[in-house]
Amino acid sequence: MTVVEVKIRDHGTFAYLKGLSSRAKKIGPEEVFRLAKFGAKKLKESYIRAKIRKGKSYNQIEARKLTKKSSGIFIPQRLILLDRMPPHFVSLKQGRRITEWARRYFGTRTVTGMSEVRYGPKGGIKGAVFVTPHPFIDAGYRMMLNRLDIVANRIANRIVK
Known about the structure:
The protein is of the alpha+beta class. It has helices at 11-49, 56-59, 77-84, 97-106, 137-145, 148-160; strands at 62-65, 71-74, 88-91, 116-119, 125-131.
């Protein structure tokens, strides 16, 4: 790693750079929050692209200010689990919501390309459903990272002006 050291001897230049530093402290948090809002928007777009049903979880994806200087994107825990879970079988027992869902959407032989229901010899639903993850977080995160250079340029232009 190469380190470059710059020594400034001119007091006028030093004062100018010190003034830029104080302006950067004011502008930076605003832009970080704007980037977090943009990231939340892109996460919602990738959520829809992953063909996940909109519901309460969709509306809970949002940007929030954590402190005066930092912001973050809040995603419900169940969406993180939906994004990262390993493919697995879930037992279809009476009284479970997933059992009702499997009967409603897979009572006929439909293929959705997502989760898979096994059928018994008489054509009915077997006792388990194979569920797969719905990855959407990484796609939204990549869309947000593509925007970082634009935000960095905007911050630099606002500081220098």
